[in-house]
């Protein structure tokens, strides 16, 4: 049995099949903290939910393209590859001829798998670009709000998202870490594209050894590793902005703010200060005011503000905090607060975003781009902010606001998805189901019968990363991994590249798409180009055959840890920011000029719809946190062993406080129904005092298993609201939703998503 190298979004490994066909997985020897998620790989490879052959929805096959309410409930017909590709090529041509390229939605958001050549979204975009273009999507579900507001505050979102202080700098210099959303260890195993050495768990351990003072601001205690002796501020969800404003208020009223820093490096502080003091609205944003909103005693707020001013303080905000209504505010308020402390640009001081959200944030690996597939250019300029998918499908021609511009939704006839699962990632899935009745045709490539595949008309089985050859590395990865074929493609699965090349041949764009190369030739070519570019910069890496034979190599290091912020601090004129003022914009005249009441010109407290202080809370008195799962990546490999082992009563586990459970006669392990006016799901109850009373937690990613508006498996996105963070960013707000919970009595409905849908054979193949 020869172990062969590969990588995944949660870590590099090698693997082989034994004589009985069982997959053995061994973590990369250089990885000090391999991810438990590797345990999902073995059983998933041959799971019954793998798509065996191309499948077409019966209604579409028999009646042809068109809107159809049966999508998601219909059965499928297995067809041969030639028939599937002939039908799809003809449909692509029909849509292009009758409606134009803009009628094809190819945003295809999603994480697919590691491996830079077979990256499904890149493959699809390259193919659709060669076909004349498509309506695309902007931003992500991860940082869809920050990515739009940060350029207004600091000029370049990447400077905050990717170029902040490194963990070693924080460990060595920070005296007080104020972590809004904590530093959830479960998340740091993941980096898009792969990660060979998981450094962050080690850095967290060093924080503990160094006795760095940590303030954990989160409704969940589990957002910080247990070994860190933190002070826990169990905040009421969605009220962090109020807490930050009160901390800022305390600083200014006690004269603890750094006026010199604010004058030299920032603009618009005076206006923000008037708001803090309540000069215009008569409401000082003081600790007493915030105490009522946040549930944190005012004395604790004042004390925290004083401690922050008295030592080297690093303020971090997880990405989850901007995945809510008005998600711009906590990010902007945290930057304003850090500016008032005057430590931005000092080692271990200032502001960070996404520490504990992703493995590469603050990591120390080299930072250069690894080989990747060129996508070409998209002649179609139409796009949507990614989380507006359902709005777009339901409202063609409707006008909406985005980042200061008025835009119009296109009229989409064909939806094409490869490497993502919108019926995992989008909010209000019952609404998304209605939206998915609208297009003429929905196409999905996926290795598995995901909920999105089940809502498609044409389902094409793609290989998994284990069944093909590729290379992979994530940002800040220490190694470039050769990804060898570890298993033969399952049944009739094909690589996305092969599928799209087959379509391209039928559409007369084969040369543009394939450039005459096989997949293996592409690997050679992309690697070779990259290697030549590095050689021009004096960096030597192995030849492709040596790289492939060795299974990977360690990337050359770049030692520098000087951040852009240190440069800005040293000289804000030479290193001016890309904002209109060149400074940090605590008030943005530009944002103010848009006139959005849901995102005015400086950080403010705005009441969301979905929170415990609002009107809806009388009917749905619990706030559910739908965060990332610790047992898998999103919906991927939910059928895998690690994910399955954590299910309770056969469903996803929902955590709630014993007091909240007792009032509802709910016991440990009970099957419960979580509901609101958008839908309901079943889940298994786990009782814990490690969360704030009134808060429940149900992670994302249980495969959506609808019976009417009820998901019997525990997917929180049947409950979440399809509301944008604001008109500025139109980001996703899936992190929070108001719900009620009751014990489920009666016969528990069985789970059906662990089997494929009903599939019959074509009458003519
Ligand atoms: N309520 C709520 N919702 C959320 C969030 C939240 O906090 N709360 N978080 C959001 C965030 S941050 C994100 S990033 C999204 C994630 O949403 P997605 O990225 O859509 O989720 P994944 O489950 O990773 O979907 C990837 C799909 O690609 C498939 N795949 C893997 N390899 C290949 C391949 O080689 N080819 C093809 N064709 N397919 C492949 C997998 O089987 C899987 O179905 O979810 C978002 N949704
Ligand atoms: N294991 C695993 N790791 C992952 C992923 C995965 O699916 N599985 N997904 C990856 C992806 S794509 C992304 S974008 C990142 C996402 O990174 P994040 O968005 O940061 O991750 P989440 O787990 O959704 O949220 C982090 C924590 O924020 C806390 N929180 C929620 N609401 C509030 C609030 O109102 N106030 C405060 N103070 N805290 C709050 C929650 O308790 C939660 O555990 O994770 C990445 N890492
Ligand atoms: Mo994400």
Automatic annotation (TrEMBL):
Residues 622-733 form the Molybdopterin dinucleotide-binding domain. InterPro entries: Asp_de-COase-like_dom_sf, CT_DMSOR/BSOR/TMAOR, Molybdopterin_N, MoPterin_dinucl-bd_dom, Mopterin_OxRdtase, Mopterin_OxRdtase_prok_CS, Prok_Mopterin_Oxidored. Residues 6-44 form the Molybdopterin oxidoreductase N-terminal domain. Signal peptide: none annotated. Its cofactor is Mo-bis(molybdopterin guanine dinucleotide). Keywords: Metal-binding, Molybdenum, Oxidoreductase, Periplasm. Belongs to the prokaryotic molybdopterin-containing oxidoreductase family. It holds the Pfam family Molybdopterin_N. Residues 50-505 form the Molybdopterin oxidoreductase domain. This is Biotin/methionine sulfoxide reductase. GO terms for molecular function: oxidoreductase activity. The lineage of its organism: Bacteria, Bacillati, Actinomycetota, Actinomycetes, Pseudonocardiales. Its EC number is 1.-.-.-. It comes from the Bacteria. Gene3D superfamilies: 2.40.40.20, 3.40.50.740, Dimethylsulfoxide Reductase, domain 2, Dimethylsulfoxide Reductase, domain 3.
